[in-house]
Structures are given as C-alpha cells and as structure tokens.
Design a protein that fits this description.
alpha+beta, 3 domains, five-stranded antiparallel β-sheet
Length: 325
C-alpha cells in the first residue's frame, strides 16, 4: 500500500517538475499563472507572454510610409502657343495618290461559232457559196434523188461528200460538185461542225491580225486640229457632216462601187476628220465602224476613208492600212 502511494506521489512530482521547468509558458498546466523572463534555448531567444503583446502593439503603432503622388504633367497648349507667336499649324500632307489607270479600248466581242449559227440551226447561207467537203463519221446509207428517181447509196466511214445547203439539222449533200444527185445526211453523222469552226476561226484570226497591226502613220487619236490650223490649200476643206451624222461624200463613194465591203446602212459609227500622213502624203482621214457581211454573217470592222481635195482617194482598214475591197 505504501509502495503504491509512493509511486503516485513520485508521478505527481515528476509532472509538476516538468510543468514548472521544462514546459513552455503557453504549454503549462499547473503553473500557467507564473510570468517568466525571456530565456535562451539552444542559442535562440524565446519571448515570454508579457513580451508578445508589446511587440504586437509596436507593429500596430508604426506609422505608414508616406505615399508620394506625382502631379500630372501639364500638356502644353500647342494651339495657344502658335497663336501667341502668330504661327499657323502645318497641314498634314497626304501621300501622293497613284494616277488612275486608263483602260485600253477593248476589241468588240467576237461571237462563237455556236452563236453565229444559232446553235447550228441556221448556218449562214454564204458559207455554202464555196465548195465545202465533209467526211462521214460512220457508215451511212443515203438516199440520193434526181429528177428521174432516187436510189439508196451505202457509203463507208470517212467518205467525202459535197455540202450544198442545210435542211433543219440535216445537210443536203452531193457525191461531187458537178453531180445532179442530192441526198440528206444528219449533221452529227459528219464532221461538219469541225469544218465550219475551223473556217470561222481562220477568218476571225485574219481580222485580228489586221486589227493588231501598226495603225496608219501619224493618225491622231482625237480630232483636236481645226480646219483653220491646217493648210487647207493642200488638203482642201474637210468633208462636211450631214444632219444625220453621215458624210455625203463618203456615202456617195460607197454607192458608186469604189468599195463593196462597206454599205451605208451597215455603218454604225462615223468619226471626225483627222489630218494624217499615208505613205508620205497628207489626207483627211475619217474612220467608220461597220458590219462586214462575211460567209459567217456580220462581223464588226473598222475602216478609214482618205479624202483629198474634196474627193475620196481610197479606203483602208484602220489597223493595217490594207485596202478594203
């Protein structure tokens, strides 16, 4: 019994010793009311409970660092400064604008072979004025007719036939140019479209070559010269224009047969008289635009009349200077 009491008493003393000497001020249980001065533990300083409130108070009472506010810079009143010195602000200089590009006059649109033939339903009759040969694309049986009767003729692929006319979407053909026999064959059974297109393209290319040649020498772009500025004693007076916009002198030349490709009723544009040299000789030049009647129909063409001393000296194409038939 005594040993037990002694053991309990020893534990109480051990706890009290540990609480009194070894425990931190905040971790004490039995001796929490005792205030101890600051003690050094392993080279570091441990603050007592009385010292901590003072540190907190010091932290709260430290004055805040003064904040320096920079005054905004005053912008100079440029306009008032300029007025005070009687100066005017320099206007902003805009960058130079590029010069507008002048588009060259484009040539009139050339209709296609399908447009000229109305999708192959109306071949121009002038196309058949010259001998035209086509080839069969497949073996065909053609009914040939004469005044005395008719006969079926079987013809092989690639056989040649003379085309003399059109009948709807069929072609009127003959075995040879001098044969009295006439027959009909479907257009799609021959190479007629290829033959027509090749001949049409050749004519268009020829006209394009004529138009793209060098223009007549010294031909001016606009009729800026007046009759009073030109030696009229050499050229004579310029041709006069009628109220309807035509030139009676040029119309008379067309009707007289001097030129057969140009008809007065087909002229769509009458230019102004312009002085020009052709082969070293001065003329009054008048340009006209007209519809030329070809084997493929109407094609817009430009020509020039050369006028000297009140007479038409000749007609030539505006592009190449070649004579107009």
């Amino acid at each position: 019994m005594k040993s037990t009491l002694w053991t309990v008493f020893s534990l109480i003393l051990l706890i009290a010793f540990n609480d009194f000497l070894l425990a931190s001020p905040r971790g004490r249980i039995l001796f929490s009311f005792v205030d101890w001065p600051t003690q050094k533990v392993a080279g570091s300083t441990v603050a007592t409970p009385l010292e901590e409130p003072a540190r907190v108070a010091l932290t709260k009472t430290q004055p805040a660092a003064p904040q320096i506010q920079l005054a905004p810079k005053k912008t100079a009143d440029v306009s008032s400064h300029l007025k005070a010195h009687s100066l005017q602000p320099t206007p902003a200089v805009s960058p130079p604008q590029p010069a507008p590009q002048v588009k060259a006059a484009s040539a009139p649109a050339v209709p296609s072979a399908e447009q000229v033939t109305q999708n192959w339903s109306a071949i121009p009759q002038g196309f058949f004025n010259q001998p035209r040969h086509v080839s069969l694309c497949r073996d065909s049986e053609i009914v040939m007719r004469t005044q005395s009767g008719r006969a079926k003729v079987r013809m092989p692929k690639r056989a040649k036939l003379q085309v003399v006319a059109q009948d709807g979407m069929a072609l009127v053909v003959a075995p040879s140019p001098n044969s009295p026999l006439r027959g009909e064959v479907e257009m799609d059974a021959t190479d007629f479209k290829e033959v027509f297109t090749a001949a049409y393209d050749e004519v268009i290319q020829r006209k394009a070559e004529v138009a793209n040649k060098e223009p007549l020498a010294d031909l001016k772009a606009s009729p800026s010269l007046q009759a009073t500025e030109i030696k009229t004693d050499v050229l004579g007076p310029p041709p006069s224009k009628a109220d309807d916009g035509t030139y009676p002198l040029l119309v008379s030349s067309m009707k007289s047969g001097a030129v057969t490709d140009i008809k007065p009723e087909h002229v769509k544009y009458w230019g102004e008289p312009v002085r020009s040299k052709v082969e070293g000789k001065d003329y009054w030049i008048v340009k006209v635009k007209y519809d030329s009647l070809t084997q493929f129909g109407k094609l817009e063409t430009e020509a020039c009349a050369r006028v000297l001393q009140g007479k038409v000296d000749g007609w030539s194409y505006a592009g190449s200077g070649e004579p107009v038939p």
